[in-house]
Amino acid sequence: MKKSSFLVIFLVALLLGAGFATKDSELVKAYVPVLLEQLQAGESAPEPVLVSEAPKADAKVQAAAKADADILAITALDVGQGDSILLQMQGKNILIDSGDRGEAARLLTKLEENHVEQIDMLVATHPHADHIGGMKAVLNRFPVKQVYDSGQNYKTKMYNDFRLQIEKEKIPFEVLRRGQEVPINEMVKLKVLSPQTLYKGTASDANNNSLVLRLEYRDFSMLLTGDIQAEVERELLQTDPAALPAQVLKVAHHGSKTSSVNEFLAAVKPKIAIISSGEGNKYKHPSPEVVQRLHDLQADVFNTALCGDIIIKSNGKTCDITVEKFYDEQQAQAA
């Protein structure tokens, strides 16, 4: 006799013994086949709770994966007295500048810690050593799919070697100019605000010819200014003021007083200001006046010299910021 049949007989006996029905009653005739069918089905079917819980767990995993896929991560890497910013989303890695050559090993370690296995876009804002010094090391360590540059004919061995290596490895290379857009994916893009043509005869042509980029992701935006100085900031106020407001500003030229004029900062109106500088650097960057201007605009100011890596994550609406190292306000004011 099957286990299920035995259980049916047992249940019927209980009903009869309790006086609820007789052997020939309609209750027994109607209910016994139903009991038998349910019990037989139960012998081979999985526990109902397992069937219902599995889709819930899958739904949570899928929702978490979707949320992660929608996050744009921006890391201002602490590479001493230099610039290097890593953008990451949906498995893509965009590296803007690479710090100085003396910090190359440190840069590579940080990229590996951020799970970088290839560089989808490598951007050189301008050819000064504190922005391109680590490029050779990056090209030697990671596959690079595309290189962008401001196209300056800068006569230094470091820059020449950088360009020659790109040509030797046949990496696609493009010079960017104002008005172009570089899509990172269907949701995120980099807009080029400057230069339109290369500046000549300014206080520092190499700095002023830096790529100025506006990073846009839905309602979130960040302005990346390379090492532009006051001349270019004032020109941007004239040529494209509507493109300047942004939640996050990468402060120009490491916070130098050559840049960040009041009118420009007032047009950007950043909530967060990122300064990339080296601890105890000989240039005394950032300038206390520039930091004060940012505070006057009620911007939260973060400096890699104090904070280490600065990580911003945005879902396209809001953004969160974390820092590698804790610091207090007294330290910030002293710096």
Could you provide a short overview of the structure?
This protein is an alpha/beta fold. It is built from 13 helices and 15 strands.
Gyration radius from CA atoms, angstroms? 31 Å
CATH topology of the largest domain: Metallo-beta-lactamase, Chain A
- What percentage of amino acids are in beta strands? 15-25%
N-to-C CA distance = 87 Å
- Under the CATH scheme, which class of the largest domain? Alpha Beta
Give the second-level CATH assignment, the architecture of the largest domain: 4-Layer Sandwich
- Total helices: the number is 13
Strand order of the largest sheet: 6-5-4-3-2-1-14-15
Computed structural class: alpha/beta
Q: Total strand count, please?
A: 15
Which regions are unreliable across 5 or more consecutive residues at pLDDT < 50? 14-32, 42-54
Q: How much helicity do the residues have?
A: 25-40%
Summed up, the domain count is 2
Average pLDDT confidence is 86
* Molecular shape: globular
The description of the largest β-sheet is: 8 strands, mixed
Q: CATH homologous superfamily of the largest domain - what is it?
A: Ribonuclease Z/Hydroxyacylglutathione hydrolase-like
What would your notes on this structure say?
This protein is of the alpha/beta class. It has 2 domains: 3-65, no CATH class; 72-334, Metallo-beta-lactamase, Chain A, CATH 3.60.15.10. It has helices at residues 3-17, 26-44, 48-69, 104-113, 129-132, 135-141, 157-168, 205-208, 230-239, 262-268, 288-296, 304-307, 329-334; strands spanning 72-76, 85-89, 92-96, 121-124, 147-149, 173-175, 181-183, 188-194, 212-217, 220-224, 248-250, 272-275, 300-303, 310-314, 319-323. The protein has an 8-stranded mixed beta sheet with strand order 6-5-4-3-2-1-14-15, with no helix packed on it. The chain has a 7-stranded mixed beta sheet with strand order 7-8-9-10-11-12-13. Strand 9 and strand 10 form a beta hairpin. Helix 1 (3-17) packs antiparallel against helix 2 (26-44) and helix 4 crosses helix 6 (135-141). The longest helix has 22 residues, at 48-69. The protein is globular. The N and C termini lie far apart (87 Å). The model is unreliable at 14-32 and 42-54 (pLDDT under 50).
